[in-house]
Structures are given as C-alpha cells and as structure tokens.
C-alpha cells in the first residue's frame, strides 16, 4: 500500500502520515503475532523480555530490571509476581540491602526460554517479513536510533548496562 494510491481513504491517509499512529499499530500487530506463535507457553512479550534479561544478568533488583527493558516499577512488580508464581523466576532479599529484592531466572525459566526461542523469533521475523530482506537491518537500526534519541521521554526510560 502506498500513500499515493488514489483508493486510500483521506482519513486513513491523514493517520498514515503520523509516525505514532503507525508505530502503535505495528506494535499491536507484533503482539498479535507473538501471542499466535507463543500461545502454548502462556507468556506475554513483556514477560518474555523479563525472562530474557534475567537469563543474561541474574540477580537484578526490580528497578534495574525495569530500566533494562523500559517498564515502570509497578509493571515490573506485577510481571515478577506472575513469573514467580509459575516457578520461572525466584526472588530473594539482597544481601546488601534487605529492603531490596533480587530476581533470578530458575532452571524452569531457562528451559521455557529455550523452548520459546524459535517461535518468538518467528514472531519477530514475521513482523519485518513484508520488508525486502536488504531493508530489514536498516529498519531495525532506524528503530534503535529513534528509541535511543528519544528514550528520556518514555514513562520508563530504557537504561542498558
């Protein structure tokens, strides 16, 4: 579809010229693809991101973990509680600060990630599949650039180590 197509409704043309509208819509599409591919695992994309982050860096506190994937403290707490209920992560008090709880992925969580990897990757691949192969890496670079350049405007800025 092209904005130059005379069959495109004018109302859609106005929306289609708004990056925020298109980004939100693409996110909705990706989440649907992820849910379709990964339905058997009963894991949301955010939960998958949390498990992935904990697989790479165990024993993260809630604030650091949220900052690494760009979700707020309340959302992080809810996600961690649901993952802990399923035995996919474990939480313990920090030896340095007893008020702080650390999260770590369990063996069961790692096993689930391994089982999910191909299907989750398929959802990611399907999201960019309509683009020509030679444009996919550039699209991801542009997305990364936009996120990085405007990161501080997010409700929960992303802070990578």
UniProtKB/TrEMBL annotation:
Source species, domain of life: Bacteria
Keyword Protease appears in the UniProt entry: no
GO biological process, one term: response to stress
Name assigned to this protein: MarR family transcriptional regulator
Keyword terms: DNA-binding, Plasmid, Transcription, Transcription regulation
Presence of the UniProt keyword DNA-binding in the record: yes
GO MF terms held by the record: DNA binding; DNA-binding transcription factor activity
Domain HTH marR-type intervals: 19-148
InterPro entries referenced in this protein's UniProt entry, alphabetically: HTH_MarR-typ, MarR/SlyA-like, Tscrpt_reg_MarR-type_CS, WH-like_DNA-bd_sf, WH_DNA-bd_sf
Gene source species: Azospirillum ramasamyi
PROSITE patterns listed in its UniProt record: HTH_MARR_1, HTH_MARR_2
